[in-house]
Amino acid sequence: MGSRQVTSWHGKNITVAGLGVSGISAARALAGLGAVVTVVDNGDGDAHRARAAELAEQGIEVRLGRLADGAHAGEVLPEGTELVVTSPGWKPDSPLFAAAAEAGVDVVGDVEIAWQLRESRPGRKAAPWLAITGTNGKTTTTQMLASILKAAGLRTAAVGNIGTPIVDVVTGEEEYDVLAVELSSYQLHWAPSLRAHSAAVLNLAPDHLDWHGSMEAYAADKGRIYEGNTVACVYNVADRATEDLVAEADVEEGCRAIGFTLGAPGPSMLGVVDGILVDRAFVENRQKNAQELAEVKDVNPPAPHNIANALAAAALARAFGVEPRAVRDGLRNFRPDAHRVAHVDEVDGVVYVDDSKATNTHAAEASLAAFETVVWIAGGLAKGATFDELVRKSAKGLRGVVLIGADRALIAEALARHAPEVPVVDLERTDTGAMLAAVREAARLAEPGDTVLLAPACASMDMFANYNKRGDAFADAVRELAAGKA
């Protein structure tokens, strides 16, 4: 997939697919540069109409719902369109994109637009991008990286899939020395021109296969992040697929492959030795020398998967020339978002941990591996996932399991096959009191020294608005449990 660079936006007819945050951001930026922008979206609710009214004030046409001929607005290519800018979630096989292909019109995403607009402000140098992707850990690693860069005194921001539209950042008033950019596989699929300073793929596991069509296509889109890298391609030594993506990438001459590992690092790697995070990549005589960066206890929380995140962030920072002290200080200053392996309370010698963000099996496996003995609260919407490998790898640490949600039977079946001796409580209820019941059942199964862990391995929307609400319900239930013990 290629994309033609746009030399002038003035008067260019652009169709923006999607009236979400990234679509609105791109539409406004392009209209501000003189483009003729039309936004299309199949939705037609009150929120859609309110957003459309705001865009209309800027001279942006918005087509919603069904058109006069009965077709959906989001499926019809407006006449005269010269470029389509899509929101990340729109599938590649959408009718709109088929029509664009037939008309010879490029389709790109908001990240591609941001990349092409990064030098749009006269007299301002574009900030280099340090880019991060992976099935799990992207947001945490991006935030860690931003914290390290700030500790080094650099003007930076965590942007992209993390929540701040990257188009707004590159076209805004504030100047940056470097950007920490989280990128999803969707965004990478639609960003053919992206060329990062350095990039990392943290891990690869099956996810979003309904969108990409296959694991091979999903991995290929993740691998786009390495294309054209100038300094470093950071990979996970424990995940061979990430190293394979580096080998396949077409990078700038002199760009290096840098591994990270939870073990002792070899040359051109970062790793862990005797509780110390060390660098054998960005040092003189890396065959013999290593540079101490931080202690494991500086990582919050110091779970294995989070130490891996810290090493990846450190590798990208070191590739940008950041000094060791800033790596340490940045990791010490970092505080993870809510619902990511968050300690909630300790009741009767049992620790309660909220990892509601573990919405797929790969994330749940990492979370379970961080604790010795666990009563696991799991379940929700499986999104096509299977659970045999997760249960097989985690069985030895399970004290018990409490299952909730629409697809809990899939996990129950995997437990019956691979951990038949583990006690399982199957909760059918889905009302507002279901989480309190789950926590009480978990407390009954737990023994002093155990961890009750909410790591659902599933999406939340069958019972909760989002994973945040699910985590909040868990924390509220734990507090109610603690109050009852007082």
What does this molecule look like?
A 9-stranded mixed β-sheet has the order 7-8-6-9-10-11-12-13-14, sandwiched between helices. The protein is 35% helix and 19% strand. It has 486 residues and is α/β, with parallel strands linked by helices. The chain has 17 helices and 20 strands. It has helices at residues 21-32, 46-56, 95-102, 110-117, 138-151, 166-171, 185-189, 209-212, 215-223, 240-248, 304-319, 324-333, 361-369, 388-394, 408-418, 434-445, 467-485; strands at 13-17, 36-41, 61-64, 83-86, 106-109, 129-133, 158-160, 179-182, 198-201, 232-236, 256-260, 269-273, 276-279, 291-295, 342-347, 350-354, 374-378, 398-403, 424-426, 451-454.
The percentage helix is 25-40%
Count of DSSP-assigned helices: 17
Cα(first) to Cα(last) distance is 62 Å
Going by helix content, strand content and strand pairing, the class is alpha/beta
E-strand count: 20
Kindly report the average pLDDT value. 93
Low-confidence stretches: none
Q: Write down the Rg.
A: 24 Å
